[in-house]
Amino acid sequence: MKLPKGKYAWTATVGEKGQIVIPKQARDMFDIKPGDTVLLLGDEKQGIAIPPQGAFTKLFGMVFDKIDPEEK
Fold first, then answer.
1. DSSP tally for the chain: helices H, then strands E
2. Which uninterrupted H or E stretch holds 25?
3. How far apart, in whole angstroms, are the C-alpha atoms of residue 17 and residue 39?
């Protein structure tokens, strides 16, 4: 299956303690380092998503009046 440009898919195995290992290619691509915290988003119908680090920085800033909502 050919994915559109910029789209990727990986698999991960869940261990006995419920842990998964993020594949190296994905960690490198999204600059995920040991000790980083990742946000997991879940939807019972669509599944789990792990957005890139910093994806919500602008949103949280707007919510807490840290940045101008017109800022791009």
1. 2, 2
2. helix 24-29
3. 19
Is this prediction's pTM over 0.85?
no
Which residue type is seen at 49?
A
- Angstrom CA distances, 19 to 16, 22, 42, 53, 65, stand at 7, 10, 16, 19, 36
Give residue for tokens 């991960």.
12
**Rg, the chain, Cα only:** 15
CB distance 36 to 53 below 8 Å: yes
Read off the pLDDT of residues 13-48 as tens digits, 9 standing for 90 and up: 999 999 999 999 999 998 899 988 888 889 999 999
